Inverse folding.
């Protein structure tokens, strides 16, 4: 997928003036926050579970090589295949080979962010294999030729009218006069259309929320059931997962599961939590004949042992973006790549380079709400700041910012000079405010005054007045 | 160098370890052999009767419908009544589960019972769960001839029978039981933890039931199972 | 003002903050008054400038460290360092130690300094045990929880408790009082359109609360919200919470003239 992160500012501007999008984004604010809050408050152990989950992931990352090996051994024992892909291209090629070997013309897909990351759909299409997204939101955006704007609600940027128009365009074999005015009818139509696809597909591709080293199981967590139909109906099931999805044991999974759905959608548990281990067993009347796991690195190992390692605890619940004022304002597409919101602001520079994604960690007010709700206690603002530090030390931020900062720092580092400048400048600035108390326009502060008034200084600085007060006190004493 | 070695080498270099570090291997082996139990919510830690009541409450909260019957023999007529109340055809799909097989289905002359995995035309599936989880109102099923996985997903209505005494307080207890049944580190092809009927919120965050899986999940809790 | 706890030594160094120094000295004097009323001996070291957040949050560690050293040196001798800003208090208390991690000469100094730092209102309530301020304010107010104070320092109930002791004052909570106002320091000038969208959301909630006055504990946020309210022509007065608590709320509100 093409990266438009360098054009974040233009993307954001466009998003802010897109009335449809702004209407749709209202649903993020109303749809997720209260439900999460309610679910969290109903579980007194929630914070203890966060600590537990963080410890599990930290332990796993510290022993990642060993858990990966243990996991691989179990998958093989269960009759499955494990493929290791260092890069996105490696992963795409392995998956294509599996599809070719299966003689696949159609593959169904469960919702998976990693296949977005490796650009799988475009690649398969180019190679003559037709990918069909089956998650309702993913299906909608596939019809539109778009990418997800949210990691758990891929079509959250759309309104129902837009979906209706897409369905009428794409399902042109259905009666024109049919009623699609309600979300129910849209869902019903997608269900019928996709039902047929599940039976057509030769290969089903899913992601994984967890890979369990103890048993060699992959786990998907969904609400629709599409991920299950995707993996039990076709002859071949391919799991694509990045290496940090490993969790040691079923007990460890249980801990994190209690956080995942509550943080994501405010459910205590998602509807379908499915553990898949190898292909169908002798005597099984259904299930896939082949089971493949494609383990993708694509930059994760380069985050290990750095100040960005904590990001590898992320379980992709989306709580950070659901609570982010910047995400609320501009939506997911403005971020310009696969992962939006605060987690994207940390992850994207790691995966595509800070030279391209430099805006993302800067476009944050550091309000800290993301970290406050992160079930895995990932210090997202801190890591965004680390990216800013790297940008600064490499001279990647705009020259005007750097010079402005330098000039300010020259004063801020020298209290006497600072005092002198402010005791001269501030009363002067205050003098110009006239009777109004604020400025409509101020030179060098256009970013501020374009949208709001600039409150004027009251008069002399506090320090000037304080010195006078001190002097008066001493005089009185003398 | 294979992708496998390249990735593992990068991981080891980042962690700062050698592959032959025995102390680390021991720690990992120990955790896999004896998984430490983490935080278990107090919510489900109840005596049996209250635990079952919590299970029913939690399941209803996620839009499952729940009925309790006194004994396994009551299940077929309860299923038939469910079909009638929903105006569904008198036909169900089920696997070869022993507990279901021994129930008096034949006594209901008008009810057709089809065996084997589900097809696209089946409207109602009947499964027997191996367990329930009280803390979330979840039922647990696994693949195999007894309860084919397609029965859980293809029909619009999924009826799941669960024995009251198999309802655990928490998820960990169910996993421990799976370990007992299948052996340490082994699993059936598919284990489904199902919590309510299928749903989607993908259009304007409006919650709708029956996305791809069943539109309705009906649970029959058997008290004297 | 009643104070329940009595301590022998209460020499407080006031970290005024650069914005209060330059734009709103009244907040500084209100802070001094509140602290003195609570039995503190207040001093204002002249060697202070800014807490260094503009540099720190722009990735400029070197300047942030230089400024932090100045600040620590200027305030080391006091029993407490108090500041009328959750954001600056968060910087001094939570982030200074991380700037000096692993620095043998400064790490311990930064830790010791951080331990003495408090945001003004939480200092009054949590450290000095102040329950009532003996001020009066006839009218309705709404309170915005600034992000750093709320999430880094856990300041939520303290200002509300003290406001409840102000006679004649009625608190009308706004929706989403804990959501960012879009200021974000340099963010508001680096991404003005996004910042504007966020503050519009905030002013809509402020207007809907129907209070006469908006209060908060951080001048940056207050200037942002006051500037937007003024531009939108929404008639809500904006003040730092310390002004009301100290009974120094008779002058023009933030961004308002004398006329």
């Amino acid at each position: 997928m093409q990266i438009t992160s360098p054009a974040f500012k233009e993307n954001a501007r466009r998003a802010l003036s897109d009335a449809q999008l702004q209407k749709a984004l209202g649903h993020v604010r109303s749809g997720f926050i209260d439900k999460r809050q309610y679910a969290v408050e109903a579980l007194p152990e929630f914070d203890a579970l966060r600590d537990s989950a963080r410890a599990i992931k930290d332990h796993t990352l510290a022993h990642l090589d060993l858990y990966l090996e243990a996991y691989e051994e179990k998958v093989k024992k269960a009759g499955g295949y494990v493929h290791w892909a260092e890069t996105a291209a490696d992963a795409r090629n392995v998956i294509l080979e599996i599809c070719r070997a299966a003689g696949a013309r159609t593959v169904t897909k469960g919702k998976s962010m990693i296949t977005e990351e490796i650009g799988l759909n475009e690649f398969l299409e180019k190679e003559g294999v037709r990918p069909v997204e089956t998650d309702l939101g993913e299906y909608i955006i596939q019809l539109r030729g778009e990418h997800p704007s949210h990691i758990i609600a891929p079509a959250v940027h759309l309104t129902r009218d837009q979906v209706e128009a897409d369905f009428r365009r794409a399902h042109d074999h259905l009666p024109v006069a049919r009623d699609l005015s309600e979300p129910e009818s849209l869902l019903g139509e997608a269900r019928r259309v996709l039902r047929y696809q599940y039976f057509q597909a030769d290969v089903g591709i899913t992601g994984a929320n967890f890979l369990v080293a103890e048993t060699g199981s992959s786990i998907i967590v969904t609400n629709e059931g599409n991920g299950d139909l995707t993996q039990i109906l076709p002859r071949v099931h391919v799991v694509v997962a990045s290496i940090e999805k490993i969790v040691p044991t079923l007990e460890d999974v249980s801990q994190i599961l209690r956080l995942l759905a509550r943080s994501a959608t405010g459910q205590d548990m998602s509807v379908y939590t499915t553990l898949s281990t190898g292909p169908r067993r002798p005597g099984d009347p259904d299930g896939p004949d082949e089971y493949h796991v494609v383990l993708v690195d694509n930059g994760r190992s380069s985050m290990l042992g750095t100040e960005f390692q904590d990001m590898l605890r992320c379980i992709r619940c989306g709580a950070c973006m659901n609570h982010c004022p910047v995400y609320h304002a501009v939506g997911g597409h403005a971020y310009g790549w696969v992962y939006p919101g605060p987690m994207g602001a940390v992850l994207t520079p790691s995966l595509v380079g800070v030279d391209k994604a430099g805006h993302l960690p800067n476009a944050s007010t550091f309000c800290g709400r993301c970290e406050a709700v992160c079930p895995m206690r990932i210090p997202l603002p801190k890591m965004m700041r680390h990216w800013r530090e790297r940008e600064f030390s490499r001279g990647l931020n705009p020259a005007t910012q750097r010079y402005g900062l330098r000039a300010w720092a020259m004063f801020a580092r020298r209290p006497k000079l600072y005092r002198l400048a402010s005791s001269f400048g501030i009363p002067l600035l205050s003098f110009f405010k006239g009777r109004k108390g604020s400025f409509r326009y101020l030179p060098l502060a256009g970013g501020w005054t374009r949208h709001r008034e600039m409150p004027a200084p009251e008069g002399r600085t506090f320090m000037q007045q304080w010195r006078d007060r001190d002097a008066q006190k001493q005089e009185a004493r003398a | 160098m294979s992708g496998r070695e390249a990735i593992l080498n990068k991981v080891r270099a980042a962690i700062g370890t050698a592959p032959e570090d025995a102390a680390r291997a021991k720690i990992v082996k120990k955790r896999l052999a004896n998984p430490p139990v983490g935080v278990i919510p107090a919510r489900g830690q109840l005596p049996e009767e209250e635990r079952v009541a919590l299970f029913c409450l939690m399941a209803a909260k996620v839009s499952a419908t729940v009925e309790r019957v006194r004994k396994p023999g009551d299940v077929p007529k309860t299923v038939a009544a469910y079909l009638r109340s929903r105006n569904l055809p008198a036909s169900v799909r089920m696997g070869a589960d022993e507990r279901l097989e021994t129930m008096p289905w034949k006594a209901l002359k008008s009810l057709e019972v089809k065996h084997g995995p589900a097809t696209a035309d089946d409207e109602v599936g009947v499964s027997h769960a191996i367990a329930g989880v009280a803390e979330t109102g979840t039922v647990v099923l696994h693949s195999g001839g007894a309860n084919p996985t397609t029965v859980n997903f293809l029909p619009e209505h999924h009826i799941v029978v669960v024995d009251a005494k198999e309802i655990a307080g928490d998820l960990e207890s169910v996993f421990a039981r799976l370990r007992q049944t299948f052996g340490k580190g082994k699993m059936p092809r598919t284990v489904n933890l199902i919590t309510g009927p299928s749903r989607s919120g993908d259009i304007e965050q409006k919650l709708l039931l029956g996305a791809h899986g069943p539109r309705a999940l009906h649970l029959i809790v058997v008290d004297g199972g | 003002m009643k104070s329940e706890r009595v301590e022998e030594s209460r020499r407080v160094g006031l970290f005024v903050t650069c914005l209060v120094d330059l734009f709103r000295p009244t907040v500084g004097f209100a802070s001094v008054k509140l602290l003195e009323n609570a039995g503190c001996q207040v001093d204002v070291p002249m060697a202070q400038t800014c807490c260094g957040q503009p540099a720190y949050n722009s990735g400029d560690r070197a300047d942030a460290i230089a400024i932090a050293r100045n600040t620590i040196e200027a305030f080391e001798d006091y029993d407490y360092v108090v500041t009328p800003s959750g954001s600056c208090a968060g910087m001094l208390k939570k982030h200074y130690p991380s700037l000096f991690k692993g620095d043998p000469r400064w790490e311990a100094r930064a830790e010791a300094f951080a331990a003495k730092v408090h945001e003004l209102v939480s200092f009054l309530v949590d450290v000095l045990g102040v329950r009532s301020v003996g001020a009066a304010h006839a009218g309705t107010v709404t309170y915005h929880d600034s992000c750093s104070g709320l999430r880094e320092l856990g300041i939520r109930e303290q200002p509300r408790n003290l406001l409840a002791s102000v006679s004649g004052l009625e608190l009308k909570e706004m929706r989403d009082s804990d959501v960012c106002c879009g200021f974000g320091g340099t963010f508001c000038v680096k991404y003005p359109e996004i910042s504007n969208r966020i503050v519009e959301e905030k002013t809509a909630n402020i207007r809907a609360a129907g209070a006469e006055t908006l209060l908060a504990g951080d001048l940056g946020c207050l200037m942002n919200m006051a500037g937007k309210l003024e531009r939108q022509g929404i008639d809500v007065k904006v003040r730092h919470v310390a002004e009301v608590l100290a009974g120094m709320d008779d002058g023009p509100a933030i961004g308002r003239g004398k006329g």
